[in-house]
Amino acid sequence: MNAYLFAALLVWLCAWALNEWLVRLKPAAPAAQRAIGIAVPLIFGITLIVIWECVVLGFSIPPILLPAPTAIWAKLAGSVPVLWADFQQTFLKSVITGYVAGCGLGFLVAILIDRSPFLQKGLLPIGNFVSALPVVGVAPIMVMWFGFDWPSKVAVVVIMTFFPMLVNTVQGLAAASHMERDLMCTYAASWWQTLVKLRLPAAWPFIFNALKINSTLALIGAIVAEFFGTPIVGMGFRISTEVGRANIDMVWAEIAVAAVAGSVFYGLVALSERAVTFWHPSVRGGRR
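The structure corresponding to this sequence follows.
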């Protein structure tokens, strides 16, 4: 057997045994539980990278098909200024701006829909229809309307994040039980008081579910939109141009940056969810 493939098999078996041992531990200290929760996926991810490296070297896979992780890291380390400029253009401008605008608009429209049965019956079906539109069809139109710079990418992100937030918020506002609403009526609470003190707290898990979904949709939408026209900067622009030049290691470097940025963004939203919905059974159950 090829030495690299044997090493890949050995690493996989050792990492599997280590993770099996870790997940069976039941430490009483919360800090130890959190450490195990971080160590298990970290070991699994490192194992996949090592196996990837060994498989590429063992089978002599050409870099144009699949570069080794070490080659991707070398390209990433040597292209920091370019990658940082692309990150600023795509993530800090398009993704963050579109995410805040799309989620904010979806939330506000959901409040209006909750106040109006007409909008609830008329707008929600249209929202479900528009949310099914493919981004590859919407992106060229937004580029034609708003130009080649980042505002057109923001428009695509707004469209992709608006309707998940709208639908989830409407469902969340309906999550409070009739008994709880009747109790608020006995206290002579107004609609706004009931919204702020009962229905919005009950809707927070639904709202954060939409925020987590949109954290990945926003990045995907911005990158895909850049395929259809952008200044000479941006993750999507770099991926499309470097594929044409057969610089696959640079493509994978951009993918790595996007994956890390998306994971960190998702993690921040998840941490915010735990801080806001600390009372929810899923959060309380995770802390026991």
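The chain has twelve helices and no strands.
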